[in-house]
């Protein structure tokens, strides 16, 4: 039996270390292609409060969203990377991962969880829970450092890796895969997995645990709470249902230590607004001008489903007062569209 391919995972850094450094802090680990749940670690399949773990997580697919095809789930452990093959293993394999993906005892480190969560929810009934979204964490770190929040300035995974604070790593191979995906959107559906597919899938998660440790050591308690609650709201974002997320896990509560100083952070919420059919372009404005104007006035995030859907919906995430303000401004834009 051929030995599995290998890749390198940077080890969690020592406090105060800002770079990958020498070879001694990089570990060579196997990449396992998983087609049956028995190939996955026991601590993943059966989450336990006695064995809480942190893993890197990502999904690949063809048009990954509620209607697309989930092809691979990548799981990065400190000692191995597992590529869960949803094409070969089918629904039974993905459903075997459901307890872990929904567990509070397993932290899933991911970069921009919205579409991954949507695909898992609508295709497999999985409510992704307990995520650390590195895109959110990056914004919170910049805010802590006193940088002014810039609307729509969402760091890409390639940009995050390139930041010297989080590795200063060039990820040129990502563009190679992007070109192939533009040429053939079904790239991730083909089997057997090619050497390029295995390497590209592993590359998307192998740095996540390193980045996680670098980020968490920089975030204060207040920012860590924002990270948890916004991650939960991002997971819900495109997963709209008829019961207002009543069957989803409760949002993280504000820690008592933050309540005690009379400067408790305001509750954060997700609001979904219906947009008149066919009027989305008018609401958004030329080159997004209308939405940018609203975002500059409100400390809230506004997302749209775009080509992948869901159509005719605006998703607003942020503190209650800021979300209500954004809602009012969006409704004003809608009225303007109705009467002009």
From TrEMBL:
Record field: transmembrane: none
Ranges in a coiled coil: none
InterPro entries: 3'-5'_exonuclease_dom (IPR002562), KH_dom (IPR004087), KH_dom_type_1 (IPR004088), KH_dom_type_1_sf (IPR036612), RNaseH-like_sf (IPR012337), RNaseH_sf (IPR036397)
Any one GO MF annotation of this record: RNA binding
Pfam families: DNA_pol_A_exo1, KH_1
Superkingdom in the source lineage: Eukaryota
Keyword RNA-binding found: yes
K Homology domain residues: 267-335
Family matches, as Gene3D superfamilies: K Homology domain, type 1 (3.30.1370.10), Ribonuclease H-like superfamily/Ribonuclease H (3.30.420.10)
Keywords (A to Z) from UniProt: RNA-binding
Domain 3'-5' exonuclease: 31-220
Protein name: PiRNA biogenesis protein EXD1
């Amino acid at each position: 039996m051929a030995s599995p391919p290998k890749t390198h995972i940077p080890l969690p850094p020592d406090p105060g270390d800002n770079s990958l450094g020498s070879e001694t802090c990089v570990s060579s680990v196997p990449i396992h292609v998983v087609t049956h749940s028995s190939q996955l670690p026991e601590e993943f399949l059966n989450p336990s409060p006695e064995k809480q773990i942190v893993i890197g997580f990502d999904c690949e697919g063809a048009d990954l969203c509620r209607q697309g095809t989930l092809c691979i789930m990548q799981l990065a452990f400190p000692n191995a990377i597992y590529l869960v093959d949803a094409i070969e293993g089918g629904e039974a394999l993905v459903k075997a991962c459901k307890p872990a993906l929904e567990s509070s005892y397993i932290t899933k480190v991911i970069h921009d969880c919205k579409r991954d969560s949507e695909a898992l929810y609508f295709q497999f009934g999985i409510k992704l829970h307990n995520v650390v979204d590195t895109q959110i964490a990056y914004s919170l770190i910049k805010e802590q450092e006193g940088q002014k929040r810039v609307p729509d300035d969402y760091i890409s995974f390639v940009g995050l890796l390139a930041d010297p604070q989080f590795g200063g790593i060039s990820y040129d191979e990502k563009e190679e895969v992007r070109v192939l995906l533009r040429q053939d959107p079904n790239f991730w559906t083909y089997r057997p997995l090619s050497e390029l597919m295995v390497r590209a899938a592993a590359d998307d998660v192998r740095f996540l645990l390193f980045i996680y440790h670098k980020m968490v050591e920089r975030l204060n308690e207040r920012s860590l709470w924002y990270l948890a609650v916004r991650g939960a709201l991002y997971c819900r974002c495109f997963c709209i249902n008829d019961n207002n997320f009543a069957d989803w896990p409760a949002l993280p509560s504000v820690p008592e230590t933050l309540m005690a100083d009379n400067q408790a952070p305001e509750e954060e919420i997700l609001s979904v607004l219906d947009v008149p059919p066919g009027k989305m372009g008018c609401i958004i404005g030329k080159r997004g001008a209308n939405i940018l104007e609203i975002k500059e006035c409100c400390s809230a995030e506004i997302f749209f489903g775009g080509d992948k859907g869901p159509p005719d919906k605006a998703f607003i995430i942020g503190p209650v007062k800021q979300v209500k303000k954004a809602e009012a401004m969006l409704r004003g834009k809608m009225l303007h569209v109705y009467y002009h």
